[in-house]
Structures are given as C-alpha cells and as structure tokens.
From TrEMBL:
UniProt keyword terms in alphabetical order: Metal-binding, Zinc, Zinc-finger
PROSITE patterns reported for this sequence: ZF_SWIM (PS50966)
Highest rank taxon of the organism: Bacteria
Protein name: SWIM-type domain-containing protein
Domain SWIM-type: 58-91
Low complexity bias: start-end ranges: 98-116, 130-141, 609-630
C-alpha cells in the first residue's frame, strides 16, 4: 500500500466483517482478506472516493453512497472481491491524527492506531480533513471498527429516502403506511427493523448507503422507507425501549372499514350449520370463490385459514386421514375470531396485523445464510412430510422449508433423500447459503431450482451462540414472560415456526419416561437457575426420537449446550418439543435418528452429567411422584438410563375438563348444528357441569348459551354462540 493523502471515510471504518458479509458474502470477505494480507493494493484518493490499484492491473473505486456506487475494472457484476479488498486495505491503513498534542492520549505515538482512530463523537458522514496514510510494514489484520453507540434511523428525512430509493418507491411505501403496518424495532449500534415483508438493518450510522435487507435487491426497496418510519414511531412512542413492536400509520383517508370478512363468516356459519358430514361439491365451489376474493384483497391470514378449511372439507369427502374434526373446529372459530378482532376500534395497523393485509404473498431473498435448527417428520397414511427449520442469524427469524413424499419410509430413511444438492439430514443440521430462496407470508421458504443461483450446504457443529437475542434464549423466565404476553392464538399472525426458539442449556436435571404415553420428559436449567422441560413423544415415523433425545442430553454426545424446538407454556412451565440438540459433536436431529444409533453400553443413573446437586423428581415433573407409583426398570421402548414411571399421564383435572368440552364442541362442527344426534344435548350439559365443578364458570356459561340456541333450524346466532364457546374453551386450553 502506497503512502498518500486519503480522505477520512467514517462509513468504511464502520464496516466490520459481519457487515461486509451481509453486503457481499462471507467467502468473498475471506478471500479479499487473504489477498490484502498477501499483497495490499495501492490506495489513492479521487476527491472523496477511495481508489485501489491491484498488482494484476485491476482498478477499483469506491465513492460515498454505498457499495452499489463502487466501480471495478474486473468486469464482475455487483460487489466483487476487489471492492471488499479496498475497504479492508483502507481499514488496515494507519490514519494519524492531525496533531498529536491536540488529539493523542499521553504516552501514545502520533502514528499509532490508537491515536489515529477518529474521534467517536464526530458525526458520521461529516467532511474531515485528509490524513496521511502510512503503508504497513507487513501483513496486518484489518483494524477493528470503533465501538459505536445506539442511534436511530428515525433521523433520516423523507428527502433522504427519496434520494436513496426514488420518489416512486417512496410513494409505494406511503400507500402501505396509510393502510397501516406493524414493525418490530430493535435498537443498538446496528438498528434492526423486522417488517412483514423483510428485515432491514442499518449497518453504518447515519448513512442510507449501507442499508441491508434480506429481500432481493430491487424487489422491495420500499421497505427501507417503512423501516425508517417505524423507527420514527418508536422514537415517539417508546423511546427508551430497546426491543418493541409498534403500529405505524393507518390514518389515511379512505382506510378500510369493517373486517372485510363478512362473506367468509357467513360461509363459515353455513359450514357449521351443515357440518363436514353434509358438505358437498357446492360448498367446495363456494369456498373457491371466497379464496379468490381474499387473495384479491390481500388478506393473508384469513386466506390461509380458509384454504385449510377448504382442504379439510375436501379431505372428509375423500375419506382421507388428513381430516380432523378438531382442526375443522379450530379453523371455523378462527375465522369468527379474526372477523371480530378486525372490526373493533383499534386502528388500521391493528386491523392489518389481524388480517395480514400488510404481508407480501412472496418475497425473493437475496443471498442468505440459514442455520439448520432441526426437523419434524409427520405421517398420514403413506404420505410423509418433513419440515426443516432454518434460523436466519441476520434477522432472528425462523423460516421453514418442507418436502412431501408418498412412501412408507420413516425419518432415518427420509434423512438420506436429496435436497438442495445434498441430503435432508445435512440441510437440517448444517448451514445453508442460497441465492434462490423465496419466502412467503407465513415464513415458509421455497428453494427454487436455478443453474445460476446455487445453494451450498456446509456441516455445522451446532455453534448457535451467534444467533440473535429473541431466537437464542439464555433466560427462561424472560421467555415465559414473552409467551404470556403474546396475543391469543386465533388472532395471531399465521407464521410457521413462530414459537421455535433455541434454548441455551446450563445444566441438565432428572429425566422420566411414561410408558403409557411413550413420552420422555427431561428438565433443563439456564444460567439463572430457571427451569424448562424438554418433552419428546414417540412416533412410529420417528423411531429413534426418544433414544436420540436421551443420548444427547445425558452426555453421551458430549456436553449438551443448546436445544432447538417449539416452545409453549403448560402448567406454569416452559415446555419445548425438541427438533435439534447441539452437544460437543454434530447436531442431533431426533426425528432423523436411527433407533440404535445412541445405544448406551452402560445405563446411566441420571440425565444430569454436570449438575452439582440432584433435583427431586417431584420438582421436575408435576404429578410423577404424587401418584404413589415408583420407578420401574427394563420397560421395552424406554430410553437407556431413564427412570420409568407407571403413574400414567398425570393429566390434571382442569385439562381433562377442558379437553372434554372441546371434543363435544368439535363434534358439532363435524356433524353440523342442524344435524346433531339426540344425545348431544346431554353430552354438552355434562361437559358444562364438569367445567363448572372445576371452577371454570365463564367457560361453562358459554356452553349454556350454545344449549339455549340449539334447534332443528339453527340460525346465525347459534353459530355465533358456538364460536363464543369454542374460543373460550380453546383459549382456556392454551392457558393451562
């Protein structure tokens, strides 16, 4: 690197390795770093632009305004390694302060990197006097960017946005703002806004040239304006909250009134009156018309629910095992719930959150890195479906890809099937880097086939410590509070894997196996001593699930560090259904493991290799010691080294009462309110009495309303009463 006079570029100094990897890709950054260490380019200045001349004759120039403004003679389209090398070489160069007496701390030479670092309180992007650049004596790692304080992108003006994305996209964003939208704002040195269509990160303070979105470049650049406006709202409403959700806009003239679901609710009431048993081809045609109308209106969550409802009606007519009376009832009640929630006075943003009207149908993603967080295998007849969960470190969002086959294979056999140029098991446990991913509104990701945009998968050892807070959980108590604060399930966004989290394990407690339920229960603790419960239930399509969970948590695969899975609250506890467990070795995917892969030569006495003190069984699993039954040994199917209890499921009285009421109400959706059998009123009354005896009087009174409106020709009021009762029972079940 030659000696020359270079301008001070705060934007280039602010870019760390992660930011460069987001703007380009990690492989390109590593290659450029090696080239700079081996033979740094010659740097010079062309006004505010930095110019790099390489030994092979390539010349790169980077003016202000972001990497997209860079030019390189190598001929590569987009960001090339020469532009990355230019930035790394500039960061490596020592930029001495203009005067040691004025700016250098005592005892530091004027040419030292410490003295050369620009003052942190200097506004980013402000012109500075040029500094002399000294060539390094030898290969030197790029200087670490100076530490930065949290800042707000809300300071950007609309003129700044117009200059960055153009007037047309600002107008597009204004239309979305008038309709209202919801955003999650995370403050910090790198502010992040999670929008329905994309996640936006502001990598360089006070510079719109270095904004990164996970949407493909040029597809949804309007999200930059939406993110800035979200920060403005957060700065006004919750200025001291580091992580918050805000409703933006929604006060435009001509905002929609009502829910927009009136016709769909009438259809749901018609289905409820006739039941799945009496649904015919005419209802299928009617459902298709509603789906078209919802698609045209952009109401994503009702569209998703109505699509599932139509699928359930078709499954019943085809006598398919995919049909479930409980799922049918859930979908009907959800349509009523969304209609009611969207119709109340809460602003257009709240309405959009309930209806999903702010969601794009699909968003093509730019080059993204996705960490495999495990898989779940399910079977219906000969159909096998596998869902693979991907954590996106850049945004903290969990995406889901899925495949389906008609085959009798189980999980271990499906693990060997091909996907994205490798195997299902490799994708579920590895790191996927792809340029061909398309994300839909439900956060399902589709990997499109492309000869140009290839996907690569590398092995991972479960190093999930780089995942952001919110996805990686170190404090189980905080997770419990977050779960308790969530809106009711029937009106939440229909996001797949919305409850998938990665829990850091500080200590493993005792384990129990219930032969009747074929369920393994293991207690884990965080660094604060808070507990969570890992619960895995046997399934024929995943024959090695329980053995794999037991082996991964008892130390046979090394010290267990993380467990990824779906979390919920039950009995006041945090419960996680495991999809993957990271120990010292390769990541364990229970659903894809073979039954004999984790056989232990010597059964262990406890699943607690690191705990300093044993935890009583009664404190880990309520109900397992209060039934008066003791542990057994040698029960077939029990994981090695796990205590076996014959105390049954330990189902609580409240849960049993709620489950019985739910089944009775689901029967009404199956048979139809107009076609109920003569004994139905007695069963409904019995369920009501049980609810009252256990103290759930408001839920019981809702069943009274259903009983009062039963008739041979039930009207809309009967359907409304059924929806009231089912929603109360369903929410009670979620809260237990």
């Amino acid at each position: 690197m030659s000696t020359g006079t270079l301008p001070v570029r705060a934007d280039l100094r602010a870019l760390d390795a992660d930011a460069l990897a987001a703007l380009a890709n990690r492989g390109l950054v590593k290659r450029a770093s090696r080239e700079v260490e081996r033979e740094p380019p010659r740097l010079s200045a062309d006004g505010p632009a930095i110019v790099a001349e390489f030994s092979d004759g390539v010349r790169a120039s980077l003016p202000e305004g972001g990497l997209e403004q860079g030019r390189c003679s190598c001929g590569a389209t987009g960001v090339c390694r020469h532009l990355i090398a230019l930035i790394l070489a500039y960061q490596t160069a020592s930029v001495p302060a203009p005067a040691a007496s004025a700016g250098s701390p005592a005892g530091l030479p004027a040419g030292s990197s410490e003295a050369a670092e620009p003052a942190r309180d200097e506004p980013s992007g402000m012109p500075s006097s040029p500094a002399q650049v000294a060539a390094p004596a030898g290969p030197t790692a790029p200087a670490s960017p100076p530490e930065r304080d949290a800042w707000s992108p809300g300071v950007f003006t609309d003129d700044d946005l117009t200059a960055r994305i153009g007037a047309r996209l600002v107008a597009t964003a204004r239309r979305a703002e008038r309709a209202g939208y919801t955003a999650r704002v995370r403050r910090g040195p790198v502010p992040v806004v999670e929008l329905p269509a994309a996640t936006v990160r502001f990598l360089v303070p006070h510079d719109l040239g270095y904004v990164h979105t996970d949407a493909r470049a040029g597809v949804r650049d309007d999200v930059i304006a939406l993110a800035v406006w979200a920060f403005r709202t957060a700065d006004d409403q919750q200025p001291d909250t580091a992580d918050c959700v805000v409703d933006v806009g929604g006060s435009g003239v001509g905002a929609a009134t009502g829910s927009g679901l009136e016709a769909l609710v009438e259809f749901a009431a018609e289905v409820l009156r006739g039941g799945a048993v009496h649904s015919g081809a005419g209802l299928a045609a009617t459902a298709a018309g509603h789906l078209t109308a919802l698609e045209r209106a952009g109401l994503r969550w009702p569209l998703d629910a109505a699509t599932e409802l139509a699928g359930q009606l078709t499954a019943y007519r085809d006598r398919s095992a995919r049909y479930s009376p409980e799922l049918l009832a859930d979908l009907l009640a959800e349509i009523f719930a969304r209609h009611r929630a969207a119709g109340v006075e809460g602003g257009a943003a709240a309405r959009a959150r309930v209806l999903g009207s702010e969601e794009a149908a699909e968003t093509p993603l730019r080059r993204v890195r996705l960490d495999g967080l495990g898989a779940r295998v399910t079977a219906i007849d000969d159909e096998r479906r596998i869902e693979i969960f991907h954590g996106q470190p850049a945004s903290g969002v969990v995406l889901v890809s899925h495949r389906q086959w008609t085959t009798p294979d189980d999980g271990p056999a499906l693990a060997r099937r091909r996907l994205a140029g490798t195997t299902v098991a490799a994708v579920a446990a590895g790191t996927l880097v792809t340029e061909s991913a398309v994300r839909n509104a439900s956060r399902a990701v589709r990997l499109s086939a492309s000869r140009v945009a290839k996907s690569t998968v590398t092995a991972s050892n479960g190093a999930w410590d780089g995942l952001p807070d919110g996805l990686l959980i170190h404090d189980y108590a905080r997770l419990a509070a977050d779960l308790d604060a969530m809106p009711p399930r029937p009106v939440r966004a229909r996001v797949r894997a919305e409850l998938v989290r990665v829990l850091a394990i500080a200590e493993v407690g005792p384990a129990h196996y219930s032969p009747g339920a074929q369920r393994l229960t293991v207690e884990i603790r965080d660094v604060h001593g808070n507990t969570a419960t890992v619960v895995a239930t046997h399934a024929a399509v995943a024959p090695g699930r329980l053995d794999a969970v037991a082996a991964a948590l008892d130390g046979r695969r090394g010290r267990p560090r993380y467990v990824a899975g779906s979390v919920h609250r039950s009995g006041g506890r945090v419960v996680i259904d495991p999809y993957a467990i990271a120990a010292d070795g390769p990541t364990v995917i229970p659903d894809l493991a073979t039954p004999d892969a984790f056989t232990a030569s010597t059964p262990t006495d406890t699943l607690n290799p690191t705990a300093s003190a044993a935890v009583p069984a009664s404190s880990a699993v309520p109900g397992t010691s209060a039934d008066g039954h003791g542990p057994e040994a040698g029960v077939p199917g029990a994981p090695a080294g796990v205590e076996v209890w014959d105390g049954g499921d330990g189902t609580e009285v409240l849960a049993a009462a709620v489950a019985a009421a739910r089944d009775v109400l689901a029967e009404a959706a199956h048979s139809g309110l107009a076609h109920l059998p003569p004994a139905y009123a007695n069963r409904l009354g019995n369920a009501r009495n049980v609810l009252a005896r256990v103290g759930l009087h408001r839920v019981a009174s809702a069943l009274d309303e259903v009983s009062a409106r039963l008739s041979p020709d039930p009207g809309f009021d009967a359907a409304n009463a059924w929806a009231d009762a089912y929603l109360r029972v369903s929410l009670a079940a979620d809260l237990l």
